[in-house]
Amino acid sequence: MPVNIEDRPIETVREEVVDQLVMNYSHGEISYEAFERRLDTAMESQNNKEIVDLVADLDLTVDKKYIEQKTQDFSVNYTPGETDASDKIINIFSSGSRSGAWNVAKEIHIYSFCSGADIDFTDAIFTHPTVTVKLFSLFSGDTIYVPENINIVSKAFCIVGSIDSDLSSNASPNAPTIVIEGFSIFSGVTIKVKRTIKEKFVAFADNLKKMFS
Length: 213
What we know:
By secondary structure, the protein is α/β, with parallel strands linked by helices. It is about 30% helix and about 30% strand. The longest helix is centred in the first third of the chain and has 17 residues, at about 10-25.
């Protein structure tokens, strides 16, 4: 006997419905406008029945190929192996950035003085389960972009400064962890996701649609 829909974990129901929406949109069963409207409701609603009703008129269900593609696209670039033990990023009266598919060292030191640094982990390649970012920011503004499917721990200390982070990680306990330590003095450090989970699902659905067209 199936479990009553209202008694099922809402995040499980939400994930199943979002997957079915992506599947049907990518196969041309619903328009982009309908897909986006229903996706918004699926992600915002706190009612299992309302979420499930979003796919009540859709016949296509998730198959093995979809699961394999989703696993590939949504997994963190994590390849256990050897890489540099530490890395330094120094900016003095200047600005610097690190982005793209770069190999992440086990420990990263960021020094910013009257400057700013943009460190983007979105497409970075992790080779360690835990990465420690040690920053010293003085009269500066630093931004750290992280993937939406990674664990974040912030231990940095502020002195007339700020560290802004509104992240709510849904990452697996087995996903890599970024630990942010150090000092922000008369500075601002922002930790944020560059691409929201909705944006990632839309991009994933668009890629599938091109494959099936």
